[in-house]
Amino acid sequence: MTGWRSARAILIWVALALAIGVPIAAAAGSEQLAWRGPVYILAGFAGIIALGLVLVQPLLIGGYLTPLSAYRGRRAHHWIGGALAFAVVIHVAGLWITSPPDMIDALTYASPTPFSPFGVTAMWAIFAVALLALMRRRLELRPRTWRLIHMPLAIVIVVGSVVHCLLIEGTMETISKAVLCVLVLAATAKVMINLQVWRKRRTLRGESVARQ
């Protein structure tokens, strides 16, 4: 049993590395980079890395990235969330430097490109979660309240990021991009379902004990 768990953990880490690394490598080999400036390229890769971090987040909170303990997984989830927000800042700042008018249109939801509103909405949700996480103790948010706020925002982040990515026809290779997006959706859905089932079981057990 221990051997199977170790093999499963290795497979998960390898799959995660491939899921994030292959799209980055494919984008690095794109012919479109020859026509892009360094700031634009940096912004683009920051966006790819951000999507990869969105995949890491549910895996951490779901406890799939062993040998990390539950505590270390939650701590890593916190720091990866900060890294995600930073990557988004680099992504947006780089695009702003290269084309301020386009970014103004995007941020004001006036852009004609269909992918812009999804990316901007996901961005605001990421910033909202990061800000609330920093102020959680000061606001004295209880775990249940935090979940009620965090879960809907997480869904907005995942859906917005995936749709934003899929609609963009850029340096990312189509198949590896689609696989990464599917994995982000699947990992998020599985973790959210598992957490809901676990909480329901815990609630039912508590009610059963109270009745005895």
TrEMBL record:
Annotated compartments: Membrane
Domain Ferric oxidoreductase: 47-160
Main localization category: membrane
Membrane topology summary: Multi-pass membrane protein
Listed GO CC annotations: membrane
UniProtKB keywords: Membrane, Transmembrane, Transmembrane helix
One family name in Pfam for this protein: Ferric_reduct
Transmembrane segments: 39-66, 78-98, 118-136, 148-169, 175-195
Designated name of the protein: Myxococcales GC_trans_RRR domain-containing protein
